[in-house]
Design brief:
By secondary structure, the chain is α/β, with parallel strands linked by helices. Helix content is about 55%, strand content about 10%.
């Protein structure tokens, strides 16, 4: 059995280690805005690094932050947190970060992708660490503002100064993570488990499962609106119950009929063949096959990516879903689109 990872809390973190340090947050999307604003509100000296012409500049400045071109922000900083899309990081790093890193700086990430697959290879004289919130940026921000925090992961890939873990924990505390708990991991573990979870379960698996259920009912002659309610809309109700009290709590809240069907039918859907497919997905993540395919497609303009996005958007459940969601008073889809 693997050794149980440590969890760090407020008393384990010394935020004063950030005193006298300038922190650069590169990017101002979902995570970038949360990190920068939380750091500022924690009394840290923070600057936002953005590319020339970024639409986020006005927003960041309106929220009281100093914005500089990325290279200039890196030159002035001791801690550099990279929070832009995975596929953009390597080229940006080569152009705007690598030439300006100083010995003893700390290079930070919220996802291990580029370090794990060696798309970015930092010099040996800088610390390389990770603080990865396990929540979208707007939640990281709102929980901090409420005096709470979201759980986070911490990892150290390279400890040039001998203080990398302590400095990363100080950063994690400053954005609210230590209020909830900061779990120790590695860049390799975070990358592989995160990609696997997204692909096999949370996004790829769940979306494919819901759409297959929708298609099955429609092909059997049922009203598509009825199919949407039963196979897609109600997913949130079940996931919320699991989020609050686990599988047992969810099963306590549903009917005996639903619980019985859960036990006898689940194994018929997620068969040994599905489990083997999951293992194959994990292998492609571990050996770099997925990362290579993704980066190659992005470098080619994302042709395959855009084609898949267009095909997915045209699925019949999408149009039915718009009709169903319009029936609810809480619906305002334009307000729910978060730029990640």
């Amino acid at each position: 059995m693997a050794q149980e990872a440590r969890i760090f809390y407020q008393e384990d973190c010394d935020q004063s280690l950030l005193n006298g340090k300038k922190i650069c947050v590169i990017g101002y999307g979902s995570q970038g805005h949360a990190h920068a604003l939380n750091l500022k509100d924690s009394g840290c000296d923070v600057v936002v690094g953005l590319y020339e012409g970024s639409k986020s500049k006005a927003k960041a400045e309106a929220q009281g932050l100093t914005v500089l071109p990325t290279a200039e922000a890196v030159k002035r900083s001791d801690i550099i947190m990279i929070l832009i899309n995975d596929e953009l990081q390597a080229d940006m790093y080569k152009k705007d970060v690598a030439p300006y890193l100083k010995a003893g700086d700390m290079l930070m990430f919220a996802h291990g992708f580029n370090i794990n697959y060696k798309l970015i290879v930092p010099p040996k004289d800088v610390d390389v660490t990770m603080i990865a919130p396990k929540a979208p940026g707007h939640t990281v921000r709102s929980e901090y503002q409420a005096g709470k925090g979201t759980p986070m992961l911490v990892a150290v890939e390279q400890d040039a100064t001998g203080k990398a873990l302590d400095m990363a924990l100080a950063y994690g505390a400053a954005i609210g993570g230590a209020r909830a708990g900061i779990l120790e991991t590695t860049f390799k573990t975070e990358t592989e488990t995160d990609l696997f979870g997204e692909q096999a379960v949370l996004c790829g698996g769940v979306c494919a499962l819901m759409q297959a259920g929708f298609e099955t009912l429609c092909e059997a002659g049922y009203d598509p609106r009825n199919a949407y309610f039963e196979c897609i809309h109600e997913m949130k109700l079940i996931v919320d119950l699991i989020y609050q009290s686990g599988f047992a709590g969810m099963r306590y809240s549903i009917s005996n009929t639903a619980e019985y069907g859960d036990y006898v039918t689940g194994p018929k859907i997620v068969t040994p063949a599905v489990k083997q497919a999951m293992k194959d997905v994990l292998k492609d993540i571990q050996d770099g096959t997925f990362a290579s395919e993704f980066i190659q497609d992005m470098k080619a303009g994302g042709i395959h990516f855009q084609a898949m996005r267009k095909k997915a958007a045209a699925h019949p459940s999408e149009e039915v879903g718009k009709q169903i969601r319009a029936l609810y008073s809480w619906n305002n889809e334009s307000d729910k689109l978060i730029n990640n």
